Amino acid sequence: MIAAAPVPASAAPCTGVVVVAAGSGTRLGAGAPKAFVELAGEPLLAHALRSLLALPGRVAVAVAVPAGDAARRATAEALVAGELAPLGDRLVASACVDGGASRTASVAAGLAALPDECDAVLVHDAARALAPAGLVAEVAGAVRATGAGVVPALPVVDTLKRVDAAGGVLGTADRDGLRAVQTPQGFPAAGLRAAYAAAADEATDDAGTFAAHGGAVTTIAGDPLAFKVTTPADLAQAERLLAERRAGGMGASGGAGLRVGVGTDAHAFDDVSPCWLAGLHFPGERGLSGHSDGDTASHALVDALLGAAGLGDIGSRFGTDDPRYANASGETFLAATREILAEAGFRIRSASVQVIARRPRFGERLAEAAETLTAVVGAPVSVSATTTDGLGFTGRTEGVAAVAVALVEG
Ligand code: CTP
Ligand code: MG
Q: From CA 256, how far away is CA 251, in angstroms rounded?
């Protein structure tokens, strides 16, 4: 069995998030600090906070607000309480603190307000109000998977020229090796704290500060929706994207690049296998037979994801004659599927899986299952369970079935 034992909720790692919202918004020129300027009737900060909701496990948040502005601090506190309420007990700490004169100083102030127990820290610009929740979860997952700093990055599309002070062209930069980076940027907490403690210069991003202190930084695919609202044209663009989304589209792609997939799976009980379902171990329950660990929920999810992207299915991708997948865990298949989609240029937006079973008793572990699958998939996964009123093979407790849907963009 490849899968590790499930981590008990109480020992779940804690992701710290610093949201920097202390800038003045000079270029936007909207007469208020940028994070408090409204987009579709809500402050940019409200939108940015909402993107933290897909983070798995425990979360701590520190928002850097304009120093000495009691009214805006109160607004920020209300937004944190309202927008992050769905995290429930998983929100272990939150604070709104005075930012500094520079972004670097604001990040440092936020970092100081996060609890020591955070093992990974994300730093996010409130101005990137439409950064997708899936991107935020993906950055956090990549920090834990790699132990490195992680930045979302996009290829540079324009030709880049070096110029002198008078605007004369000196040469063309090779854009192949260049990327435009976004936030959230994620880091191992201890390394980021040490880098900020030692920071002498202002860096334009956190990865710069982290790297200046010797930290390794890697990139993941960025998202056009994570653009920074800087000018009035950016705000108008964000308004249009949200209006489109509310009208049934889904943002930068206008919905055109969105695809759904469906997956189903079933396995019979046997008397020799341990019971794994939705990435969780159920001690003392009869397990599910199969070439792998029989995790029907994960397998249905794999089929939904591959199907949405038009990339085949679990059988065609992970053949039963491939020794790498003998006894493989559901998480192994899901992690490999995530890579297959990423390599093919698809971003997973969300997924939902329903387990159809009388046993194991699944109800009280739904949240844990959703957290586990969300972490592996790198996008929000919801989990539900049902029975069939005694009908069929699940009703006779002969096995477990699952059905999943996934939404991907590419
Ligand atoms: N920021 C901050 N503290 C500062 C400066 C910036 O917290 N002293 C935050 C901003 O609130 C924003 C992010 O850093 O969320 C990115 O900065 P930028 O886009 O430059 O925002 P502003 O500084 O507000 O805008 P401008 O430079 O046009 O004044
Ligand atoms: Mg600025």
A: 9
The answer, yes or no, to whether any atom of ligand 1 lies below 6 A from the CB of 63, is no
Average pLDDT over residues 312-330: 83
Distance of CA 92 from the midpoint of ligand 2 (Å): 30
Say how many Å lie between the CA of residue 24 and the centre of ligand 1: 6
Alpha carbons 394 and 275: distance in angstroms, whole number: 15
Residue with the two structure tokens 């990974």: 120
Residues found in the chain: 410
Same domain, 50 and 198: yes
> For 47-86, what is each residue's pLDDT tens digit?
999 999 888 889 999 999 999 999 999 999 999 999 998 8
CATH number at residue 277: 3.30.1330.50
Ligand 1 lined by 24 (C-beta under 6 Å): yes
For residues 332 and 367, the answer to whether their CB atoms sit within 8 Å is no
Ligand nearest to the CA of 103: 1
* CA gap 50, 46 in Å, rounded: 6
Question: In ligand 1, which atom is closest to the CA atom of 23?
Answer: 24
Give pLDDT tens digits for 131-151. Answer: 988 899 899 999 999 999 999
Write out pLDDT tens, residues 13-48: 899 999 999 999 999 999 999 999 999 999 999 999
Is ligand 1 within 6 A of the CB of residue 101?
yes
Task: Say yes or no: CB of residue 159 within 6 Å of ligand 1.
Answer: no
Ranges 235-249, 250-264, 324-338, 380-394: which has the least confidence: 250-264
Domain that holds residue 61: 9-163+173-248
**Last residue of some domain: 248, 278, 310?**
248
pTM assigned to the model: 0.68
Shared-domain flag, residues 293 and 348 = yes
- Quote the tokens at residue 76: 């920020």
